[in-house]
């Protein structure tokens, strides 16, 4: 595939449409956070003039794109994800990138969602029938992601960190769904043979993917396991208790992340019951509008909740570790 067919995405979009148009999806968040020097990318963006008081994910994605001109086109989720994406797209448009906006409508508006998917297909030169066929082709892969999730919360054979990495990578399947599916099969075969572990404290991790590294591992050291990664699980479009969907529009209407926070509360409450969670950690990113949703999650979820805030790419610091330790101790 020629490099000009790489399609940067700022968040989860109907990836089946991108694949139907012959594009290779590249989730900019994943590329930033797995870069060998994420801090250097943020610094580069600040050196260019982006403010210190701007979310580090946005700066990281911006600088990553500057270093990768082969990603000639980008889809920015300008409604339902991040209030900064609009300006990010403006900047990258001025760097010569083709920028396409994708807006999630209200969750109760299937017609507008259908229209948004149709528009995206038009922009990406994709046929909707082909996109629907790809949705069906991806069902076994998504079922395997569900199996991986169960190996985490039911069987204790997959760690919270592994669960996070696989599910978060499902936004773009690392650019190649076939290769991803094969690697996942191999991983599951190997994980199945592991002995089961019974975590002393069962946690759910809510919110945007943490920029701080080693959070899951630190919790394991403290005797707690993350058995629910809320947003990564959403990225993976796992059916769970709700049963299978029948169309692309239904799949992306069920996806809670871009919609009103009530959809997230209902999903978290359902999964907390199913997974028998003892407590929740809400990760928030400095300078992110989603920090405000912490109020709702605290009020409406009936479980102990610890809010953590991260700013820059760095390992868990001493103060955070102490807070986690105290939380786990109380729950234990
Ligand atoms: S963490 Fe918040 S501000 Fe940062 S990119 Fe994500 S949604 Fe936007």
Strand content: 5-15%
Q: What is the end-to-end distance?
A: 52 Å
Question: What's the total number of strands?
Answer: 8
What is the CATH topology of the largest domain? Rossmann fold
Helix content: 40-55%
Order of strands, main sheet, comes to 2-1-3-4
Taking Cα atoms only, what radius of gyration do you get, to the nearest Å? 19 Å
Broad CATH class of the largest domain: Alpha Beta
**Largest β-sheet summary:** 4 strands, parallel
- Helix-strand topology string: EHEHHHEHEHHHHHEHEHHHEHEH
Q: Flag low-confidence runs.
A: none
Small molecules bound: iron/sulfur cluster
Domain count = 2
Known CATH architecture of the largest domain: 3-Layer(aba) Sandwich
Number of helices: 16
- Average pLDDT, rounded to a whole number, is 95
Q: How would you classify the helix and strand content by structural class?
A: alpha/beta
Tell me, what's the shape?
Answer: globular
What does this 3D model show about the protein?
It contains 16 helices and 8 strands. By secondary structure, the protein is of the alpha/beta class. The mean pLDDT is 95. Residues 55, 57-58, 81-82, 84, 208, 285, 288, 290 line the site of iron/sulfur cluster.
Compact description:
By secondary structure, the protein is of the alpha/beta class. The protein has helices at residues 15-20, 28-33, 38-47, 56-67, 85-94, 110-124, 128-137, 139-153, 160-168, 177-192, 215-221, 230-235, 248-254, 261-275, 294-300, 318-331, and strands at 6-9, 24-27, 73-79, 98-103, 201-206, 224-229, 279-285, 305-310.
